[in-house]
């Protein structure tokens, strides 16, 4: 076998998102792209805000001397300070650049965190439904993944977590605003998680880290509450990205922020910088860091996503789908009208509409629809969504 047996096995059970994306390519070749309505991939179609282009143009026309050279593995001090300034607007705890490490997106950041703070064989808990790549990130570093289901509203089930957290549990990885459900954890949820982790850490005499995947930071609707996890739990680590807030997913720029109150903070920061290098990321792209230094507070026009959310939610409910209205991110997670979500998404594909089965996120019986697509794609998908529902 030309590739490792393990990788071959992982590829066979890998992302349903990628499978549906590839199915979309096939269908577009057969029927024409204008006749296929791909709602499978979270690839934002909204362009970056004007400020992003303004800073980029300035850098291109007036380049800084040495701006393409290596920098410290933690990133440019001025970029990290700019992010700390933004964190100070949200948290009661005061940050500075020494609490931040720049990363190649949230995906790179999560791998850096897991490599830095956990030993082989230790356990990371994730909540179902979950972002599909978490299982692979955890496995990358020889760690054990334990999946705990959320409640009927896709919120953490504190009672279940209390039973599942054990002496080998070293981290709980959460994602809010959530992919794939669009759920946002409010202050009540964050306090409950904090209280539980404090209790369990004391019970087992160990540090249990709360890791937040904050890839959809500030991408919320209807004034949804987005409490800062640093204000609740000292052993907190946030991994964030500008992929969605600036609509630049291909540029791979994000960061890790560690609570200044975290035990062994300085040692952890050193490990993060070291692993950033030894995992092969080396440095976050320099031009992107220069842009973030000046545009850390910039944001895409969220109202455009909210209109898309309102459109798809309205039509799904009118058709008869059982679905919660998402408060954040740009996904909606309706229940499939038949229990077999894989079969149902195959029926949808026959109608030239692509969605991702919930089984790919650890929650069968649902499907994920991405609404960060062109309006014509959302509008064109309604006929197929209606026909497939009628075949239940």
Short description:
The chain has two domains: 5-48 and 301-390, Alpha-Beta Complex (Aspartate Aminotransferase, domain 1), CATH 3.90.1150; 66-295, Aspartate Aminotransferase, domain 2 (3-Layer(aba) Sandwich), CATH 3.40.640.10.
What are the SSEs and their pairings?
Layout: H1 5-12, H2 16-31, E1 37-38, H3 50-61, H4 77-90, E2 100-103, H5 105-117, E3 123-128, H6 134-140, E4 144-149, H7 158-164, E5 169-175, H8 187-204, E6 209-214, E7 236-241, E8 254-258, H9 265-278, H10 286-295, H11 302-319, E9 331-332, H12 341-350, E10 353-354, E11 356-357, E12 367-370, H13 375-390
Parallel strand pairs: 1-10, 3-4, 3-5, 5-6, 6-7
Antiparallel strand pairs: 2-8, 7-8, 9-12, 11-12
Features:
single chain; 392 residues; alpha/beta; Aspartate Aminotransferase, domain 1; Aspartate Aminotransferase, domain 2; 2 domains; seven-stranded mixed sheet; three-stranded antiparallel sheet; 12 strands; 42% helix
Structure, explained:
This protein is an alpha/beta fold and 392 residues long. It has two domains: 5-48 and 301-390, Aspartate Aminotransferase, domain 1 (Alpha-Beta Complex), CATH 3.90.1150.10; 66-295, Aspartate Aminotransferase, domain 2 (3-Layer(aba) Sandwich), CATH 3.40.640.10. It contains 13 helices and twelve strands. The chain has helices at residues 5-12, 16-31, 50-61, 77-90, 105-117, 134-140, 158-164, 187-204, 265-278, 286-295, 302-319, 341-350, 375-390; strands spanning 37-38, 100-103, 123-128, 144-149, 169-175, 209-214, 236-241, 254-258, 331-332, 353-354, 356-357, 367-370. The strands form three sheets. It has a seven-stranded mixed beta sheet, with helices on both faces. A three-stranded antiparallel beta sheet has the order 9-12-11. A two-stranded parallel ribbon has the order 1-10. The chain is globular. It starts with a helix and ends with a helix. The mean pLDDT is 93.
